[in-house]
Write a structure and sequence with these properties.
It is a single chain. This protein is mainly alpha-helical and 194 residues long. The chain has one domain. It contains 9 helices and no strands. Helix 2 packs across helix 7, helix 3 packs antiparallel against helix 7 and helix 4 crosses helix 6. The protein is globular and about 45 Å long. It starts with a helix and ends with a helix.
Length: 194
């Protein structure tokens, strides 16, 4: 479930990819993104997810705010996919210092409502439904391991895939896929209650 939610190439994942392509600050960015996911997963599984699901106002905020964010993000991805100025992902854009890079990673993580929707509401809601504390802990551990594997593979595997990731056609296809997924998830949020 975690892998299905975090694999879509969003702003945070694109930053991890760029850092991997540039071979700059990959370890700290991977650790920061992974620890942030773990924190949000634990908050969701051990209480906050259930709290959000029990509050109609909070649930509506996450539902409609998340749908709006996903729609805007999907529209931007669609624009990149069908625009003529699409370029490949190049590592040169990542040549910033460690602190500004980590600041960007923090902003892309904690200012993104989709992150809360995925980790706190959806994962947390499913994890909180486990029958006992051991089941909730096992769920959180599995979700955390999926996050660790994803960010590690994404950051450190970017160099190996750099030949393909620098091609504009590949990024147009990725952006088209991201746009489709974002639109579908936004529609699900709007038309199916959480």
């Amino acid at each position: 479930m975690t892998a299905g939610l975090i694999v879509a190439i969003g702003a945070q994942n694109a930053l991890v990819l760029r850092q991997g392509l540039a071979r700059a600050h990959v370890g700290p960015v991977v650790v920061l993104c992974t620890l942030s996911d773990w924190l949000l997963i634990l908050l969701g599984v051990f209480g906050l997810g259930a709290l959000v699901q029990s509050s109609p106002a909070l649930l509506a905020l996450f539902r409609y705010g998340g749908a709006a964010f996903l729609f805007v993000y999907g529209a931007r991805a669609a624009q990149r996919a069908w625009g003529s100025g699409t370029q490949g992902l190049h590592g040169s854009a990542a040549a910033h210092g460690l602190l500004p890079t980590l600041g960007s990673a923090l902003a892309l993580t904690y200012l993104n409502p989709h992150v809360y929707l995925d980790t706190v509401v959806l994962l947390g809601g499913v994890g909180a439904q486990q029958p006992n504390a051991a089941g909730r802990a096992a769920f959180a551990l599995g979700a955390g391991l999926a996050s660790l594997m994803w960010f590690t593979t994404l950051g450190f595997g970017a160099a190996a895939a750099s030949r393909w990731l620098q091609r504009p056609a590949v990024w147009r296809a990725i952006d088209a896929g991201v746009a489709a997924v974002m639109f579908v998830v936004a529609a699900q949020l709007l038309f199916n209650p959480l």
